[in-house]
Amino acid sequence: QVQLVESGGGSVQAGGSLRLSCAVSGYTVGTNCMAWFRQAPGKEREGVAGITTGGGRTHYADSVKGRFTISRDNAKNTLFLQMNSLKPEDTAMYYCATGRWVGSECRNYRDWGQGTQVTVSS
How many C-beta atoms surround the C-beta of residue 39 within 10 A? Predict the structure, then answer.
């Protein structure tokens, strides 16, 4: 069973940057990608970005394309999300997750951490 621990969240002004990290230990059979998703109060969960286990393929939600970058350091078992040009609408709890690559994105999340809060003020 995998354990995921997110960190790096915080409060920033619009236009600022944050880098989220997710420390990964263990492995869940049947997963072949990792993703970041977010959820704001009263809103549905939104997949933000995903990356295959080998790092060869990535996908991004239209709302973050060109601003966010997902990456992974397999040697350090860490997943990252670099977030630039942050907007108030990016405010949410951010989670990293394991999943299955379906079509052109990481979906069917199997495990996720406790999340890290990102708050962007205008």
Answer: 14
What pLDDT score does 55 carry?
77
Helix/strand/coil for 100:
strand
Residue with the two structure tokens 């236009």 = 15
pLDDT tens sequence across 44-56: 999 999 999 887 8
Low-confidence ranges of the chain (pLDDT < 50): none
CA gap 119, 68 in Å, rounded = 15
Are 83 and 118 a contacting pair, CB within 8 Å? yes
Report how far apart, in Å, the C-alpha atoms of 11 and of each of 15, 36, 58, 99, 119 are.
12, 18, 27, 28, 5
